[in-house]
Amino acid sequence: MHELSIAQSLVDVSCEEAKRVGARRVQRVYCRVGVLRQIEPDILRDAFGIVGEGTLCDGAELNVQVAPLVAHCAVCDRQFVIGDDDWICPHCGNVGGLCNGGDELEITSLDVEDDA
Ligand SMILES: [Zn+2]
Fold first, then answer.
1. How far, in Å, is the centroid of ligand 1 from the Cα of 82?
2. What does each C-alpha distance from 62 to 51, 74, 93, 95 come to in angstroms?
3. What integer best gives the mean pLDDT of the chain?
4. What distance in angstroms lies between residue 34's CA and the mean position of ligand 1's atoms?
5. How far is the CA of 84 from the centre of ligand 1 (A)?
6. Is the pTM of this model over 0.90?
7. Side by side, which strands form the sheet with 61-67?
8. pLDDT digits (tens, 9 = 90+) for 5-59
9. How far is the CA of 49 from the centre of ligand 1 (A)?
């Protein structure tokens, strides 16, 4: 179950960041995961809960946003989302090139609770 290893890195990064800002605990983590990682958001949330136990992320809520594949069209210099393996630029009809890899894994935002 590779959601576990992803959950682990989310917990690691979140805890580090929480420590850096002197927070008492993490309340909510917003992350973006590329569609090619084939993550099941529910499973990732469960895994996050398990891995986060006993850490600053204990009881934190995980908000998962699945990021689609994005292509870039060299002809009209625009970006567009690739759906159903359709690499044709919706603006000019040319074939676009891959812009993001679909394998992102990033924390976009973190809600923490501090001592105050
Ligand atoms: Zn185009």
1. 13
2. 12, 36, 38, 36
3. 93
4. 23
5. 18
6. no
7. 61-67, 25-34, 105-113
8. 999 999 999 999 999 999 999 999 999 999 989 999 999 999 999 999 999 999 9
9. 43
